[in-house]
Known about the structure:
By secondary structure, the chain is an alpha+beta fold. Helices cover about 35% and strands about 20% of the residues. It has one domain: Ribosomal Protein S5, domain 2. The protein has helices at about 15-25, 55-75, 95-110, and strands spanning about 25-30, 30-35, 45-50, 80-85. A four-stranded mixed β-sheet has the order 1-2-4-3, with helices on both faces. Strand 1 (about 25-30) and strand 2 form a beta hairpin. The two termini are about 20 Å apart.
Amino acid sequence: MNFFFKKENRILKSREFRYIKKMGCTRKSPHFVLLTGTDTNDFSRFGITVSKKNGNAVKRNYIKRFLREFFRLNKHNFSKLDFVIIVRKTFSKKNSILIKNELDELFSNK
């Protein structure tokens, strides 16, 4: 099993983010909005959006590292789709176990 998080597994271009936001399915939770788009690749891809309302750069980078690590460890469980996670302002790093459970629940309802 490969646990790398390669560049091909990331959504990097703003036009891809816009396309998934426009055409994808939306699922919401207290801390996240999950956008799911179709993909023609043989693997799933992942993108993260964290606005400046979530705090300074240190906090935003912590959130992105946390989400990338979640995706890296669980990407073999996901179907071959594009996923974009938009982090809501209510995100708190104090409850990391609760956040992981929320992400598991959010992705399990594919």
